[in-house]
Amino acid sequence: MLSFLRQLGLSLLDLAPVLSVVLVFQVGVIHKPLPDVLDLMAGVGLTVLGLTFFVRGLELALFPLGEALAYAFARKGSLFWLLCFAFALGFATTIAEPALIAIADKAAEAAVEGGLVASDPSTCARYALGLRLSVGVAVGIALVIGVIRIIKGWPLHWLMVSGYTGVLAVTPVAPPEIIGIAYDSGGVTTSTITVPLVTALGVGLAHSIEGRSPLVDGFGLIAFASLTPMISVMLFGVLWTT
Amino acid sequence: MDNLGLGANLLTAIRDCAPIVATILVFQLAVIRRPLPHLRQVILGFGFVVLGMALFLQGLEMALFPLGEAMATQLAGPEFVRFPDEGGYEWVYAFTLCLGLTVTLAEPALIAIALKAQEISAGAIHPWGLRLAVSVGVAVGITLGAYRIISGGSLVVYILTCYALVLTQTLFAPRMIVGLAYDCGGVTTSTVTVPLVTALGIGLAKSVPGRSVLLDGFGLIAFTCLFPIMTVLGYAQLASCLASMRR
Question: Is A101 on the interface with B (CB under 8 A)?
Answer without folding.
Answer: no
